[in-house]
Known about the structure:
The protein is mainly α. The chain has helices at residues 3-38, 44-69, 71-90, 95-123, 126-129, 133-157, 162-165, 167-181, 195-214, 224-246, 260-280, 283-289, 295-300, 303-323, 328-344, 353-380, 387-425, 427-433, 445-448, 453-485, 502-511. Helix 11 runs antiparallel to helix 16 (353-380), helix 11 (260-280) runs parallel beside helix 17 (387-425) and helix 14 (303-323) runs parallel beside helix 16 (353-380).
Amino acid sequence: MSDKRLRVVLPGLLMAMLLAMLDNVIVGTAMPRIVGDLGGVDHLSWVVTAYVLGSTVSTPIWGKLGDLYGRKTVFLTSIVLFLLGSVLCGFAQDMPQLIGFRAFQGLGAGGLMVGAMAVLGELVSPRERGKYQGQFAAVMAVAMVGGPLVGGFITDHADWRWAFFVNLPLGGAALALLALKLDMPKKRTEHRIDWLGAALLSAGVTALVLITTWGGNQYAWGSAQIAGLAALAVVSLAAFMVVERRHPEPILPLAIFRNRNFSLVAGIGFLVGFAMFGAITFLPLYQQIVQGASATNSGLLLLPMMGGLLVTSLVAGQMITKTGKYRIFPVIGGFVMIVAMVLLSRLDSDTSKTESAIYMAVLGLGMGFLMQTSMLIAQNSVELKDLGVASSTSTFARSIGGAFGVAAFGAIFNHRLHDLLAEKVGDQAADQLAGGGGGGASIGPATLGQLPAGVRTAVIDAIAGATSSVFLWAIAATVLVPLLAIFIREVALRGGPEAPNEQAESTLVAQEG
């Protein structure tokens, strides 16, 4: 597609991605108002879990459907489902309804990010795609910073239902623009959908997400419930692999993992999700409790990280387009992330906002070298017919890594928080403050000021110490990122003067092991 035509449809792709990134942040900010109106505080976590389940389970399926039936139709369908789910959530009358509608909304959300990346991958050659990395990084920055601001405004000045209705104008504009201006070929060939594979993958992924959500919180890690979910995950995923090897149109063609580059960037995506999303989950708590930031301003404090991400995404994208070389960027990004995790592990109760901003900026610099570059390598490593699968698998790996990271680092955070509090105020008080290992349930900005001065100081020091421990452990996962990236092979990007032709490239993808 020419640059002129692409500039017309690119805003629609960016708006769809923005929808997917904004929603959970806005809803999370509005949750106190939602619970106050609908009740059901004991089901609070399910409002988030249902959405995450729906989006994670559907991500690989949307990618494959786009490969089979054409990206435009499938992408527009995911937007429609997401908007319909938003309307239903906005009209929910009780907590069970909201949870069910959030799961439905998540099914649509699973296709937004994957659809946008796959559509861009088909419209723009990998060699030229680097020019647009900065714009996608900018969308992430807007979502990370704008989400808490929008959610805070809705919480303070409007009905909580607008946390869902706010999706309609943005999504409607994206839908109309893409329906009218996005010109892509329609698939007309007959296909057999791998329904059994989709069901087995969904069951396995659902079990994994529930393990990471419930483990150590609702149920003990060694409980029968967690063990049963682990068994379900193992059996379902093992059966899924058997089915995929035999089906003519597998949901996830296992052959693509024979490509070394694809397997490496999938592993890198998992590790980046594990270390990055798992660790930075605890930064807002640190900023609000230790540094005294408001819930809204804690979003603004992430600006340095987003700025760093934007800068290196632009630099890497332009360099890739100019030279066609990309192998060095994941290596650099991995080493920069290690430095960032080391710096963030130094956080304590005396760390100034300026220091923490510098640390987060370094993390953003590393992320910028990794995020879009990994997606580009994944898409360039497969045949064009598997572009959607490559996009969804890359996104899926990062999402699963993030889910495991949040669970693992949550356990580390809770354990360290309790130990530090016990040293200062005793075991009984530590149990009360830290919710008996339940994630610091009774510690929050609203309750901090009500504590005696000595206890308040102990809480601040404990939160700071637990946060630094999380980043210290994250170093172990981050170290593996550049080690994997070193083994990435420099394969010519499609669309460049030295790129192999389509037939030769297909042979390379099929034979490379």
